[in-house]
Amino acid sequence: MSVSARPEPRPAGRRRSAKAQWNVWLRWVHTYTSMISLLIVLFFSVSGITLNHPEWTLGIQEVKRTVSGTLSPGWTDQGKVNWLAVAEQLRADQGLKGRAGNTTVNGGEADISFLAPGYSADAFIDVKTGKYTVNVLEQGSLAVFNDLHRGRDAWTGWRWAIDLSGLALTLISLTGIGILLFLKKTRRPALTVMGIGLVLTVALAVHAAG
To answer: Which end of the chain lies in a sparser environment, N or C, as judged by fewer CB atoms within 10 Å?
Structure first.
């Protein structure tokens, strides 16, 4: 006698334990943060190497030039320098770029600087006549690359990008360590290697600090 048997229903899935949920969450955050941060890691890795070797030029030469001119009337107001008007006219007349600052007035000369990654321009103005001379230094794309790594003379948005990058890399590191703690087979040797690396890094830092 044949009996048609129905497949037994699957048992209802058990709810994950808190430990398992932490494991899943760590893997999810680690994976997607790593994907987002991949190009960031690449940029700071390569620029860290070039920054550590300032003697490398890669065939890129600095460009120095000097320009001159005369400011239009109205760049002073009741004997005081209108730095905003000066900066805007110098940008328009000479194509200067970067953040304007470091303004000084010393006797008969007024000075203002323009700074950007890999770029600087120093303007010297005769207070009586309004005649100026600007020394421009363009250090090339490699210097721009290195200054962006340091955030030097960069606009505020880029500094925020550096902070967020650091936060993302910190999150990647912490979630990676958290995932490691769930791997019983490789946890002990991995933590041992990490501990050795930590000791060596601290020793090198102490030695480098003198």
So the answer is: N
3 state DSSP class of 124 = strand
Q: Reduced to 3 states, what is the DSSP secondary structure of residue 115?
A: strand
pLDDT band at 58 (very low <50, low <70, confident <90, very high): confident
Note whether 120 and 140 are within 8 A (CB). no
Residue 32 carries which side chain, given as an amino acid letter? Y
Total Cβ atoms within 10 A of residue 8: 6
d(CA 204, CA 123): 43
pTM of the model: 0.68
- Total residues found in the chain within this entry: 210
Instruction: State the alpha helices, DSSP H only, in the chain.
Output: 18-51, 83-94, 141-150, 156-181, 184-208
Q: What are the Cα distances from residue 26, in Å, to 32, 35, 73, 176, 185?
A: 10, 14, 64, 8, 18
